[in-house]
């Protein structure tokens, strides 16, 4: 690294080679031996890879990171480890953009109503169809965010209802809960607990007090 720095400064006529070798406490003969040494095969491939990486990075939308650059190289028939690509990108001062991979999934309505904790933070049940638990998760896809609402029986931990959509409106949760009611033929009194609602469920329920 010291010899490389001396070579860069020498090419820019920043300082004399003798002065730099003395100040950096390296031998002048050692520097010239390094300069006259043939370039290694790995160094040559690094130069070629860096050129390709620069082109892929410039053509990529949104400043591609290491994995997207690796995919671009693979498309050209070049297999390369992530560590090597990262090293070359850092040396070339190339950086990828890393958007936040999270979304807010619980939004209060205009007139939110707080729900009591009917299960007392006890996420177990002595039998099936006594207490269900629901949640919303999200997955980043090539076309945008996909939202998945689930209903889980706290006795068996089985998923008894689910729904997926490109939004997280109330209808997403209602669809998952209606599937659970239809599949389990839910008896009166089963409790549905979640971050967004907690209500007793009956087979004749036409709507649920859910807010997403």
Model description:
It is a single chain. With 212 residues, this protein is of the alpha+beta class. The chain folds into 2 domains: 2-91, no CATH class; 100-212, no CATH class. 38% of the residues lie in helices and 17% in strands. It has 7 helices and 5 strands. It has helices spanning 2-11, 17-23, 28-36, 41-59, 66-75, 82-91, 170-184, and strands at residues 131-141, 144-153, 159-165, 190-194, 198-201. The protein has a 5-stranded mixed β-sheet. β2 (144-153) and β3 form a beta hairpin. α5 (66-75) packs across α6. The longest helix is centred in the first third of the chain and has 19 residues, at 41-59. It is elongated and about 90 Å long. Mean pLDDT is 79; it is low at 202-212.
Brief summary:
With 212 residues, the protein is of the alpha+beta class. 38% of the residues lie in helices and 17% in strands. The chain has helices spanning 2-11, 17-23, 28-36, 41-59, 66-75, 82-91, 170-184, and strands at residues 131-141, 144-153, 159-165, 190-194, 198-201.
